[in-house]
Amino acid sequence: MRRVIFNQKGGVGKSSIAVNLAAIAASRGRRVLVVDLDAQCNATQYLLGEIAELEPNIGQFFAQTLSFKLKEKPLSDYIHGTRFSGLDLIPSNPELMEIEQLLESKHKIYKFSAALQALQQNYDEVYIDTPPAFNFYTLSALIAAQTCLIPFDCDAFSRRALYSLLDNIAETQRDHNPDLRVEGIVVNQFQPRASLPQRLVDALREEGQPVLKSTLSSSVIMRESHEKSLPLVHLSPKHKLCEEYAALYDEITV
Fold first, then answer.
1. Rounded CA separation 5/137 (Å)
2. What is the mean pLDDT of each run of 10 residues along the chain (254 residues)?
3. Residue 163 and residue 142: Cα distance in Å, rounded?
4. pLDDT at 69
5. For the packed helices 136-144 and 95-105, what is the interaxial angle rounded to 10 degrees?
6. What span, in angstroms and rounded, lies between the C-alpha atoms of 23 and 253?
7. What's the CA gap between 243 and 232, in Å, rounded?
8. Are 149 and 6 contacting, i.e. CB atoms less than 8 angstroms apart?
9. CA–CA separation, 120 and 202 (whole Å)
10. Which fold is adopted by the domain 2-252?
11. What is the pTM of this model?
């Protein structure tokens, strides 16, 4: 399964969701790969901490496709192991921002999809973390993925942005990847005692939007998880938020 975590709005928890779902999958014996396509490198730092600036990285993978003189290396050459059994990573790099326009002008939009499909025998699940924009890298991820998981953080601005996001996904389905499906909208940083979040979620469900049953609470433990570069399943497997992630994983992998 190739799953992209995507929202055009920043700060909705894309990297946290990608890494924690991947870590849960690996802890259950699955062979898992995380691909960090965000130049901010959040998923990379989450998994690797202070040694996050690794080479080779995904920026170098894309950069090589711009040269006709170099023999392109397969995506497998850019994979690094992590300290977590069964969980591998293709790290990001700020270089992604520098070469984006060149990649667009050279029409390299299908390179990532073809490269990732060549790895499909090596992994049971692939999680692709994306930048907070509908750009070259996000489109590359949507073309490469089988499913899309959309984080939603329960405010009015996020709701309005959601419709544009869904339109972009639908356009990608029509033009590039008819097999792509929206796996669901995952409500993140949910506060059940607050009236606005519940109203927003109820309104989305009434509209027929694919809001998942599992929600993720707001918790300070996530900050600790980031600081220690330990996904929740390794930091505090009995914590409520970790159990919510486990429930989310079970819901989307049924």
1. 12
2. 93 95 98 97 92 84 84 94 97 94 92 94 97 96 98 79 93 97 93 76 92 94 96 98 98 91
3. 17
4. 67
5. 80
6. 14
7. 9
8. yes
9. 37
10. Rossmann fold (3.40.50)
11. 0.95
